[in-house]
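Morning F.,

Quick status update on the modeling queue. The single chain you submitted on Monday has been processed. Sequence for confirmation:
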Amino acid sequence: MKRLLDQNISWKLVNRIKDLFPGSDHVRLLGIEKEDDLLVWEYAKTHGFLIVTQDIDFF
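Structure tokens below.
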């Protein structure tokens, strides 16, 4: 399953994980890094992502 990296994880990691998780992306690269957690969650759900975050209070 492709991963969606949250803003608290470096966007540079996307290229490092693409071989293991094709289609992975980062909220910064998608232009949604400033959006609230609910919008990020809805985007991930709609587009088939698993969210990777270090945010203990995400959503």
